[in-house]
Amino acid sequence: MKKISISQMPNHIGETVKLGAWVANKRSSGKIAFLQLRDGSGFVQGVIVKEEVSEELFTTAKGLTQESSIYVTGVVKEDTRSSFGCELAIDGIEVIHIAQDYPITPKEHGIEFLMDNRHLWLRSRKQHAVMKIRNEVIRATYEFFNNNGFTKIDPPILTGSSPEGTSELFHTKYFDEDAYLSQSGQLYLEAAAMALGKVFSFGPTFRAEKSKTRRHLIEFWMMEPEMAFVEHAESLEVQEQYVSYIVQSVLKNCKIELERLGRDISKLENIQAPFPRITYDDAIKFLHEKGFTDIEWGDDFGAPHETAIAENYDKPVFIIHYPVGIKPFYMQPHPERDDVVLCADLIAPEGYGEIIGGSERIYDHELLLQRIKEHNLDEKAYAWYLDLTKQGAVPHSGFGLGLERTVAWISGSEHVRECIPFPRLLNRLYP
């Protein structure tokens, strides 16, 4: 008898198979028992007809508790009523372990209770679907960059300096030196781009922001490409092609998960490059016309501002050319204006806010040194980065995509805390 996973069942219609599974839920009509089974690869219904099995087997099935682990055998049958397309007619059960008092029952639970039990909450259908979508975004990311000639580089997590200053970094001692948990691998990736041309990284980053919004995590994952000989406009094209690619990959490969989450896929089907572009100047004018009197030229956008701008479009929208004063030191100035830089934030539709921040990077040594001084950064700590502008400097650009915000948007999740397996929030380090 062949042991398979639930995800493989549609390929074995009419065959007798064996599954290792957990009992996600069960119900019984007296003559028929229905077991909702899961094994990590998917969910399926198992059916046990009392008249067709031994009394001992039926009694065993009725005695199973939520999240008990079992081996089951049975015939895979087509089920057109199910989005999965099949069910299992069970004729054998081997109990591995009977779970005791599983805390997350089918009833409603408060979010703090669920977060305290995150190690178990991950087993639920919704959380399973979100994690599958997260995995598909990661898989498609590697595929996109590998197919487009990028080399993966792994920047350090412990650093002696920061791309954006050290005010929001976690400090630690590195023997007798100060060190910080990385908020971005960008500077190291710029060095790698000078060696390999086009590079990308994917890894954890840390922000010591005391924020409790639905868009913020203390520890999150970022995709960061850097590209030599690529200017700002070219970088925007890479960004919109990349985002389009991952959205279409999720639509293709996560249909069941999107359906389980109740996601309106018509809004995702429209996500195809190119994306609209508006300047920061025009965004400020638009917000004033919409009655936002709390923002002036030179201010950064908050969540309500980004949402109002995004509502004007049915695709992600680039806001380009932000003021120098609200962006990091390394961004290339606009060639025709000294008050804005060649940068862009990509704002997702449906109120999910910024998912990408990127820019062309400064490659003139004197200007970069000036910017470092203006930001009161330690010149010695950035000596190696400055060295890049003295050894064959070229125009180059890059960006960073926040994985959890992107997954939240694509999956339709309300909060980024559901888009990472074990979220780190302002007041949460457990489990």
Summarize the structure.
By secondary structure, the chain is of the alpha+beta class.
Describe the structure.
With 431 residues, this protein is of the alpha+beta class. The protein has two domains: 2-97, Nucleic acid-binding proteins (OB fold (Dihydrolipoamide Acetyltransferase, E2P)); 118-419, 2-Layer Sandwich (BirA Bifunctional Protein, domain 2), CATH 3.30.930.10. 29% of the residues lie in helices and 26% in strands. Helix 4 crosses helix 6 (232-253) and helix 4 packs across helix 13 (403-411). The longest helix is centred in the first third of the chain and has 23 residues, at 125-147. The radius of gyration is 26 Å and the shape is elongated. The model has no long low-confidence stretch (mean pLDDT 96). It catalyses: tRNA(Asn) + L-asparagine + ATP = L-asparaginyl-tRNA(Asn) + AMP + diphosphate + H(+).
Structural class: alpha+beta
- How many distinct helices? 13
Spell out the CATH superfamily of the largest domain: Bira Bifunctional Protein, Domain 2
Which word captures the global form?
A: elongated
Q: What is the string of SSEs from the N terminus onward?
A: EEEEHEEHHHEEEEHEEHHHEHHEEEHHEH
- Average pLDDT works out at 96
CATH class category of the largest domain: Alpha Beta
Percentage of residues in strands: 25-35%
Protein name: Asparagine--tRNA ligase
Keywords: Aminoacyl-tRNA synthetase, ATP-binding, Cytoplasm, Ligase, Nucleotide-binding, Protein biosynthesis
GO molecular function: asparagine-tRNA ligase activity; ATP binding; catalytic activity, acting on a protein; nucleic acid binding; transferase activity
Domain Aminoacyl-transfer RNA synthetases class-II family profile: 131-431
